[in-house]
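Please, structure for the following, as tokens.
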Amino acid sequence: MRISSLQIFDIANRNMSDLSGAITKTQEQISSGKRVLTPADDPVASTKILQLTEELSNVKQYSANINSARNSLSLTEASLNGVTDLIHRIQELAISAGNTATLSKNEYAAFASEVDSRLQELMNLVNTKNANGDYIFAGFKSRQQPFTGDALSGFRYNGDEGQQKIKVANNTFIPATDSGKSAFVDVPSSTNTINTYVSPSNKSDPPLKISVGRVVDQKIYDEFYPEDIVITFNADGNVVPQGKNFTATAKSTGRVLLNNQPYTPGQEITVQGVAVKISGNPVSGVAAVPATQSFGAQLPTGPFDFSASPQTIQIRVGSITQSLVLDANITNTADLAANLNDVANGNAARLASLGIRVDAQGLHMDQGINFSISSGSAAVDTVMGLTTSTGSQSVDGVLAIAGDRAFVDSSNRQDILTTLARFSETLKAYDGSAASRQAITGVVASTLDNLNFAQTSVLNVVSTIGARVNTLDSTDSQHLDTQVVGQKVLSDLSNLDYAEAATRLSQQSMVLEATQQSFIRVSQLTLFSKL
């Protein structure tokens, strides 16, 4: 086999290059302290190193999440403890206020002043923000102030029931916030009570306001419960002299509770054992245009006597149909109206159920609902001057347009803010009379009961926070153990054995040096040197 000089040079160059690369790699390992610099160095170890590195990175992030959740829960617990301390103080005031035999009006006014101050303090606590500016009791709506309003306009919870959760382990999420609804709003009430609010579609400017209200006669209200009340402002012309007026109705049935009552801003309105105050300048409604069906101008010659052979007609209003009887001798429209309004034959009751009134001019639906008349005969058509046989329909009725509205909803729950507001309102109303003493006694009892319920609600949330903190502590401890074990395994896989690397570097350097010297000697061996 013949080896050329070019092959000798190529082989030597390749060997020295490989040896130089090995030395460079060893030097890089020594400088970095890492045994595996590329996946090619140890594919199996590289895979494990990537897995461990990712796991340790996740553990680091979980630890940061745990610290964030712990800080959030600590802030929540501190705020709830502040609410608990405030409840204790109001309980003390309520017990003191129960001594109606010796306390004066001025002393009750002083109590009310402190309750108002505590109410403002409570508003600050339930609207607590964290370091990021998020409201901790607003649920998922953390950028929106959860509690708004005051004793004059009622309190509103604007958040939701969500809990913001933080991932603290692969399959573990911990709620870091709590909904103010569960902590402060959904509190059982000692007695049947009310919630007040105004319609969002109201047009008054400034907006109409309704107070938190109070139950002034529990017995009457319990009989009415669980019905709701709607207070609607009517057309100004509904009262004489013309002016702002309202009607209170039962929400589910429309039954009128108070009709066309003159409105005075800030004056207490009492209905079904409930007292509320409405303030502002409400937008009035627009009156209905009655629907009518007029009788003929005059009757034909001769009377129409239906006494021997009564005739009927049907009147339909909406989904209600009633049959009216004509069973009298009718000589003019006055006789016709009297027959249609007859109590004995039941016509009067049927008209009342339809909301229709009849006079000598015709039929009138004052609520503006158009109605139809049908199923008559030719004789009835002649008497009434209407086409009852083929059907006659009113077309001139126009429904009323309601003005601003306020609502009083029944409830068996009472938020803690409203409890304080109603307590303060009753204290301010004390005037030394027997009625005001009785009111104080009643509100003290209900306030103490409601504060106990509120305290229980708050403590329930605090207990869940304690459980969550325990979970965070145990999870954090597990992460620390995982981190210690993972770092040890990672060190075993990736860290360099400096003694072995130094020995290997010395060996590689010696081999490279020997290779270089051998190449020098071989490269000088030529035939020309033998001539």
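The chain has four domains: 1-33+496-531, 41-147+163-187+432-494, 188-287+400-413, 291-393. Residues 343 and 349 are 7 Å apart (CA to CA).
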